[in-house]
Every structure is written in C-alpha cells, then in structure tokens.
C-alpha cells in the first residue's frame, strides 16, 4: 500500500513539475519596458494546461495513436535503454573488480586510462564509429553493422555501444572510487585475516555495502543514457521516441501529449529506483535500505 501511495505521489509531483516549468515564462510580464512578476497570470496558465491535460480521456486523442507511433517507437527506445543499462551495470562491476585485483602501480595506470576515456565527448565516439563502419565497408565491401535507421530499419548494436560508452566509464570511475575507500574499512581487514579471497570480499561484502550508493548513481546513469539516446536517434535517423517528440513539438503542438511523452520517459527512472530499493531491502534489511 505504501509503495502504491509513493508511486501516486511521485507521479503527481512529476506532472506538477512539468506544468510549473513549462509555464514559468508566464510568471514574468513586460509592461512599459519593465519586468513585472504576475503570479495570478502564472496560476491561470497552469490551471488552463491542467484542464487541457484532463481532456486526454476524450476520444479526440485516440487519433494521435495513429499519427504518432508511440507504442512502437517507445518499445524501441526502451529496448536500447534497458540493454545499455544492463551492459553498463555488469561490465562496470566486472571491470572494477579486475582493476582492483591488479597491483597498485598497474591500478594507477588503469585509473589514468579510465579518466582519459571518461572525458571523451560522445560526439567524437559517434563520428569514430561512423568512420569505422564506413571505412570497413569501403575496404572489405562487408556491411558489418546497420548504422542508420533508414527504410524502417532498426539497428541495435551501434546505438547500444555508442549510448553505453560514457555511462560505462562514469559508473566504472564511481565504483573504483567507492570500492577503494571501502577496502580501508576494518571489516575488510578482518575478512582478509580470516583467509577470505579478495574476489569474494569485493563481489559479496563490499558490493552489498556500496549498493545504496550505487543505486543513487544509477539515477544519474539512466538520465545520461536517455540524453545520449535522444542524440543518437537524431544523428542516426532512428525510428525511436525522438521522432514522436519532434512531431509533437513542431507539427502537432499538443501540450497534453507532450506531458504524456515526458512522463513515459520518466518511467525508467522510477522503475530503476523501485527495483533498486527492493534489492537493497533484500540485501541489507529494511532499515539500512532507506536512503
């Protein structure tokens, strides 16, 4: 019951945030070359948009399901998001453990390499992948990967790799930092004195203690992946949720459908938090799971 109530409250807060943010320009009025604050005008616009949002129950909005392929494009975008998130999560944990098992001098060199790649812009990665695929096609005549979403194509490999690049190094950098700090705790020294292997200490004991912090970091990772997906879908001309945004903003200009699309983009973040909280409760107990 508490979970359902929290979900309803969170959904109300998200929609309210969208309403207040989109109508914030109406809070400022210009009269006689002076800026005047008008709280009443701002509330009137919020009220009007809220009433418009309530009209989603009407049959007129069923036409948008034919104009905007929401379900199909949303499924494609969420597939890229879920695949990228799982890839980043498991690959970052595996790489962090491997780095921490190496000698101190090798660790420092690996950390420098990780810091370098973490600073590489996403656009550079996109252009390098495009150049690599085109170069291989020109030299070998083999079309190894589907690059662009033309003629209804839905490539997965290149978008997932490109989207996962920066989040992987961000999460890897975070894991190495917190796991290194955790290695100095007394319980780690005690476990090593008992003869427990370092791999088990890292994957079981340390990982369980840093999981609440990892959950907080996953929120950032999800937003970074969503931002990258928006960029990738635009540059690779993919048939994803980005085109729904573009049609809604530039062609249909419908405010309620824009709110619906934004709420749909917020669903992955809520889902990650819910799953992470349940796993944290299972690993550490109810009291220690409260962030």
Which helices and strands appear, and what pairs or packs with what?
Blueprint: H1 2-22, E1 28-31, E2 34-37, H2 39-53, H3 64-67, H4 70-100, H5 104-118, H6 122-140, H7 157-182, H8 186-193, H9 198-235, H10 241-252, H11 255-284
Antiparallel strand pairs: 1-2
The first-level CATH class name of the domain at 91-291: Mainly Alpha
How far apart the termini lie comes to 20 Å
* Total number of strands: 2
Instruction: Give the ordered list of helices and strands.
Output: HEEHHHHHHHHHH
What percent of residues are in strands?
under 5%
Major sheet: arrangement of strands: 1-2
What would your notes on this structure say?
- With 291 residues, this protein is mainly α.
- It has a domain at 91-291: MetI-like fold (Orthogonal Bundle).
- It is built from eleven helices and two strands, in the order H-E-E-H-H-H-H-H-H-H-H-H-H.
- It has helices spanning 2-22, 39-53, 64-67, 70-100, 104-118, 122-140, 157-182, 186-193, 198-235, 241-252, 255-284, and strands at 28-31, 34-37.
- The chain has a two-stranded antiparallel sheet with strand order 1-2.
- The chain is globular, with a radius of gyration of 24 Å.
- The relative contact order is 0.12.
């Amino acid at each position: 019951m508490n979970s359902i109530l929290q979900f309803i409250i969170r959904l109300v807060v998200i929609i309210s945030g969208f309403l207040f943010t989109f109508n914030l320009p109406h809070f400022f009025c210009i009269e006689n070359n002076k800026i005047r604050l008008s709280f009443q005008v701002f509330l009137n616009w919020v009220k009007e948009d809220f009433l418009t949002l309530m009209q989603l129950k009407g049959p007129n909005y069923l036409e948008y399901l034919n104009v905007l392929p929401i379900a199909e494009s949303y499924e494609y975008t969420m597939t890229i998001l879920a695949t990228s998130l799982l890839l980043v999560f498991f690959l970052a944990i595996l790489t962090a453990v491997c780095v921490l098992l190496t000698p101190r001098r090798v660790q420092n060199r690996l950390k420098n390499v990780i810091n370098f790649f973490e600073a590489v812009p996403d656009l550079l990665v996109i252009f390098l992948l495009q150049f690599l695929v085109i170069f291989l096609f020109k030299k070998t005549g083999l079309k190894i990967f589907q690059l662009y979403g033309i003629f209804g194509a839905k490539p997965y490999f290149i978008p997932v790799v490109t989207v996962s690049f920066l989040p992987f190094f961000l999460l890897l950098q975070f894991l190495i930092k917190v796991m290194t700090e955790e290695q100095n705790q007394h319980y780690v020294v005690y476990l090593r004195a008992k003869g427990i292997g370092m791999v088990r200490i890292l994957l079981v004991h340390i990982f369980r203690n840093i999981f609440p912090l990892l959950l907080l970091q996953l929120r950032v990772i999800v937003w970074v992946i969503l931002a990258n997906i928006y960029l990738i879908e635009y540059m690779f001309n993919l048939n994803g949720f980005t085109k729904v945004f573009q049609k809604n903003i530039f062609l249909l200009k419908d405010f309620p459908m824009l709110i619906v699309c934004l709420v749909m983009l917020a669903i992955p973040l809520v889902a990650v938090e819910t799953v992470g909280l349940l796993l944290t409760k299972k690993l550490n107990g109810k009291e220690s799971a409260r962030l």
